[in-house]
Amino acid sequence: VLYNVLNTYEFLPRNEFLAQLGNTFCNDNSTFQILCTNALFAICDFNEKQMNSSLLPIIMGHTRSGASIKQIYHFTQGVKS
């Protein structure tokens, strides 16, 4: 109901600026790639052997892609039951 009132149907929507930032600063030729790797390790877990650094720009470009308000509502229904 709240999403109808606020006319907002997405929670934390994808931000094109942050996606471009991830693609630019996390590529193989960037000196900032270590910062992107550390940020990903802080969120997921540290395992350098399993890290494929060539996929880092793609991963960081798709990070924080948002969720539907209905998805969150459905999740909370599952938690309550």
List keywords for this structure.
81 residues; mainly alpha
Notes on the structure:
By secondary structure, the chain is mainly alpha-helical. It has one domain. 56% of the residues lie in helices and 5% in strands. It is built from 5 helices and 2 strands, in the order αβαααβα. It has helices at residues 2-6, 16-25, 33-43, 56-62, 69-80; strands spanning 10-11, 67-68. It has a two-stranded antiparallel sheet with strand order 1-2. α2 (16-25) runs antiparallel to α4 (56-62). The longest helix is centred in the C-terminal third of the chain and has 12 residues, at 69-80. The protein is flat, with a radius of gyration of 16 Å. The two termini are 20 Å apart. The mean pLDDT is 76.
**How are helices and strands ordered from N to C?**
HEHHHEH
Broad structural category: mainly alpha
Largest sheet: 2 strands, antiparallel
How many distinct helices?
5
Apparent shape:
flat
If you compute it from the alpha carbons, what radius of gyration comes out, rounded to the nearest whole angstrom?
16 Å
| Overall structural domain count | 1
Taken as a percent bin, the fraction of beta residues is: under 5%
Strand order of the largest sheet: 1-2
Q: Indicate the mean pLDDT.
A: 76
Total strands: 2
Low-confidence stretches: none
Helix content: 55-70%
Termini separation comes to 20 Å
